[in-house]
Design brief:
Layout lengths: L1 H13 L5 H25 L11 E6 L8 H14 L4 E5 L10 E4 L8 H4 L1 H9 L5 E3 L3 H12 L3 E5 L11 E7 L27 E5 L6 H7 L6 E13 L15 E7 L4 H9 L3 E8 L7 H10 L5 E5 H13 L2 H4 L5 E10 L2 H9 L10
Parallel strand pairs: 1-5, 1-6, 2-4, 2-5, 6-7, 7-8, 9-10, 9-11, 11-12
Antiparallel strand pairs: 3-4, 8-12
Helix pairs in contact: 5-10
Length: about 375
């Protein structure tokens, strides 16, 4: 199964223990590190220009690959900022989309692109953030200039923007998953680090996914940087049917044994969330992050789910699965377990302090902490 190979590779990358593969690949990590460090130095010395937009910019991102809660946190921050009365636009790269350049996924009234054109995560954000425009663009500054002309926002919210140094930001939020930390502490492709740990110095605020906070090893690495930390956790907001058959009130009719279906960089948190509902994960079907589902995939998923009571997937995966499920006849759907999706939100450990930091971009002289 596709997920088996993916998880084996990622377990090695995410493990704190270093083995033979780490040793063999370490020269590639050193080369990658040299390129990243040189790029950072060019921006720091002014040889590469950092551009500023005529609005406030808040960035949410990480220094590791996948699975740190960027999308739920971006949705949460966008909603909080809007509740304060700010005009917000979300800007994402749109990984895996079929389009190029700057594209408006949604405006204040409607969704303008489908999931393939927008990318699964921007489309999900467009669905969740009613009235808040979502835009995709590879070049963040150029996209920001277009956004200013189209929407004139108070705040541009960058999804997965930590590495986009070319665009100045007024609040830099770094996400760290407490269960994964920095893995082996090695850079890609040997480990999960996009940048050396020292790059976290650019952060104004560190958001830690998991109530327990950072583990001792990560705490030791982060201590010299002296960054403020606030914890956040996933919160289950909804549990709904997306197939043509099944009980709509899923919360009151939870099945006993389910298939966990996901295409995520780090599916462990999703599986734990399912189990927290009292459901037994009888089987798993795991794909690479941003996987595009096909009819053949759906047939394999149903085969794996034989004998189980339901299939549970993520909201991000549901974006792509809905089209396939809608193509099925009711008779065909009745031959298989119903498909449910978990709608996940974020809850922060210190909401008053978090809100204060968000608002601070408008109250400090230079727009930074």
């Amino acid at each position: 199964m596709e997920g088996d190979n993916r998880n084996g590779i990622e377990r090695i990358m995410r493990s704190e223990k270093k083995g033979v593969i780490h040793t063999l690949l370490s020269p590639l990590s050193a080369l990658y590190g040299a390129v990243v460090s040189t790029r950072s130095l060019l921006y720091k010395t002014g040889l590469y220009k950092i551009n500023r937009l005529p609005c406030k910019v808040i960035s949410i991102g990480n220094i590791t690959v996948g699975g740190s809660g960027k999308t739920p946190m971006t949705i949460f921050v966008a909603e909080r900022l809007t509740s304060f009365g700010f005009n917000v636009v979300v800007l994402s790269r749109g990984y895996g989309r079929s389009t190029t350049g700057t594209q408006v996924v949604s405006d204040t009234e409607s969704i303008l692109l489908d999931a393939k054109e927008a990318g699964d995560e921007p489309y999900l954000m467009a669905e969740r953030l009613s009235g808040i425009p979502v835009v995709v663009g590879e070049k963040r500054y150029e996209a920001g200039v277009e956004i200013m002309e189209l929407f004139n926002p108070d705040i541009l919210l960058l999804d997965d923007g930590f590495q986009h140094i070319s665009l100045a930001r007024d609040l830099n939020i770094l996400l760290i998953d407490s269960t994964t930390g920095f893995g082996s502490g090695l850079l890609l492709p040997t480990g999960i680090l996009r940048e050396p740990v020292g790059a976290a110095a650019r952060a104004d605020l560190v958001m830690v996914k998991g109530a327990a906070g950072l583990g001792p090893k990560v705490t030791e690495l982060m201590a010299p940087l002296n960054k403020e930390e606030i914890c956040f956790e996933y919160a289950i907001e909804d549990f709904t049917i997306i197939s043509k058959i099944g009980t709509a009130d899923a919360a009151a009719n939870q099945a006993a044994r389910v298939l966990a279906l996901a295409a995520l960089a780090n599916p462990g948190s999703f599986i734990s969330t399912i189990e927290s509902l009292g459901l037994e994960v009888g089987a798993k079907r795991l794909y690479r992050d941003h996987h595009g589902y096909t009819k053949e995939d759906l047939a394999e998923i149903y085969k794996t789910a034989e004998g189980l009571d339901a299939i549970v997937t993520t909201e991000k995966d549901a974006v792509k699965l809905k089209a396939l499920l809608n193509e099925e006849s009711k008779e065909a759907a009745e031959a298989h377990p119903p498909v449910y999706t978990l709608r996940i939100g974020a809850e922060v450990s210190d909401p008053e302090r978090f809100d204060y930091l968000l608002k601070s971009v408008f109250t400090t002289d230079n727009g930074t902490l």
